[in-house]
Protein: Arsenate reductase
Organism: Thermomonas beijingensis
Amino acid sequence: MAQVEIWHRPTCSNSRGALELIREAGIEPVIVDYIRHPPSQAQLRKAIADAGLTVREAMRNKEPEYAEQGLGNPVLSDDALLDAMVATPKLINRPFVFTGKGVRLCRPPEMVLDLL
């Protein structure tokens, strides 16, 4: 199988669950701590598009920073939202998993099984 990568946040139960399912399948993925090493805007845009999501669908709207930065404003462009997500990576929904079969936001974690 091609390399598997997960944008992981250890404090997130969905992220931990997806990682566990990947490992149960006998795969040790590349684990990217996207909080410490956020993707570029271009990488994030591609991941979101490849997962078939809108930028808003890939954003965590329950984080305090979402309201503090006024990100619920419907006139904000995708570029503005992506810039906010790169600057404040905890706004990126998780976990994104990348395999040879595609990219998916694995919420719930069992969504990763289709990629393995």
Summary: The helical segments are 13-24, 41-50, 64-68, 78-87. The two ends are 8 Å apart (CA to CA). The chain has two domains: 1-34+94-116, 39-92. The chain has a mean pLDDT of 96.
